[in-house]
């Protein structure tokens, strides 16, 4: 569920869930962005873009998985995003390059790779002052460069990201907190499948690692990339690619801990 106005988010939660439960649900909101193609009237946000060459520091090697180069899918300019994210971005990593193993590699290369292994993705930060455009080596694909505008939104979690301990609710009327959200907030569909988003809450019409909790809290959502015919990428039947990172790893700037997951409809 995405809101352009945080005050409107709080009002809707209180109206539908009651003052106390609504306040609890509104407290789960995260700041994020819708990534939309920039046009003449909508300027790109910093150096944010989908596709195109990577923006890497000169000495940074191109990431590989078992000797096969990954493909660059997006660059986020966190300097341009930091003011809106505030404390949700505890560090300023500069440019973030998002790589993933291209599923359209030639079969003889593709068949020997573990598509579920840790090496299928990389998120590589770069100093904006030192970063240079770096072209993908073969056989990695080079997608068209699409500058994007990061539209500021406040996001509420999908019902399946809410646990029973997050909210107070009538347990005789609802089997769990997801039932309450489905019942009272259902027409404000949290499913953002089919769109590109950064930070905030992802589309979680599926179970995603960002939903998992432990003593350190949940993972942080970095990027959601939907199928895009203009860019020429896709991941199975209505597939969406998600990048997440553990809370501690983000706080220390250790993007080696970032993971990617493809989920299909």
Automatic annotation (TrEMBL):
One matching Pfam family: DUF1963
Highest taxon of source: Bacteria
Gene3D superfamilies recorded: YwqG-like
InterPro entries: DUF1963 (IPR015315), YwqG-like_sf (IPR035948)
Listed name of the protein: DUF1963 domain-containing protein
Organism: Streptomyces africanus
